[in-house]
Amino acid sequence: MWQASPRTNIPRLAQDLAPSGTLLSGFRNNGPTYTNSGHTALTTGFYEDIENSTGSQLPSHAGIFQHFLAASGLPASSAWVIASKDKLAILGNTTQFGWSDAFRPSLWCGVGGGGPGSGYADDADTVAKFKSVLSLYQPRLVLINLKEPDASAHAGIWNDYLAGLSSSDAYAADIWNTLQTDPTYAGTTAFFVTHDHGRHLDGIGGGFVSHGDSCTGCRAVALLAMGPDFRSGVEILSGGELIDLPVTVADILGFPLSGTSGRVLDELLK
After folding, report:
1. Cβ(146)–Cβ(39) under 8 Å?
2. Measured between alpha carbons, how far is 118 from 56 in angstroms, rounded to an integer?
3. What does DSSP say about strands 223-226 and 191-193: parallel, antiparallel, or unpaired?
4. Phi and psi dihedrals of 116, rounded to 5?
5. Where are the domains of the chain?
6. What is the pLDDT of residues 225-253, one digit of tens each?
7. pLDDT tens digits, 154-179
8. How far is CA 212 from CA 49, 55, 66, 85, 197, in A?
9. What's the CATH code, domain 11-268?
């Protein structure tokens, strides 16, 4: 995605958004390179080998949504997981003692927001749901998951994979523009664009079609940070990993996230 120069498949991110933010192009997934494990790392600050097919295994640690709601005392409608992939409903709960079934965020995951077993929603529906939630509830913390380009890559059709990159690029810009035209969020919102894992390089495990090992391609992700807290027009070629993002979010929003070895990504900040 970001590693391919001149980044022609993501023109909105690379040309329109990145100049206004800080890009960690060497950001990495140093844990299991699968969807549920990657998203768990992004939200809990812990790498964990999570069942990846059905959404039947909850994370062992409470994530930023539960910690934020506990610290703020705000209702569940203030924190949302909005995901095209139904199995990512796991991000709203944990098996951790004292946190299981407590301070749970609002969820909309999969077709119709139905959760595990409902199937993958179209990304257009996921973005539309986000806009609806923004208007109705003015949430403080939201994760948006898009199924593309991962879903098309697994289908093994290169042109569809490129189209998935293009659509996700456009949706990222659309989401940012939506925030900047809303008086509640304009000029006050931290916006992160990243992904849970990369893909196999050519000659490894079928190439772009799959992922899941420790090859350079699977570990390679990137993080773009935009908003008033971050520097503009800066690209950092190395440093940072998935478990650092939830620690950084917690620091910005002012709630504790203890126990993780993740760190605040100070290099992003002004």
Report:
1. no
2. 13
3. antiparallel
4. -50, 130
5. 11-268
6. 999 999 999 999 999 999 999 999 999 99
7. 999 999 999 999 999 999 999 999 99
8. 11, 17, 28, 17, 8
9. 3.40.720.10
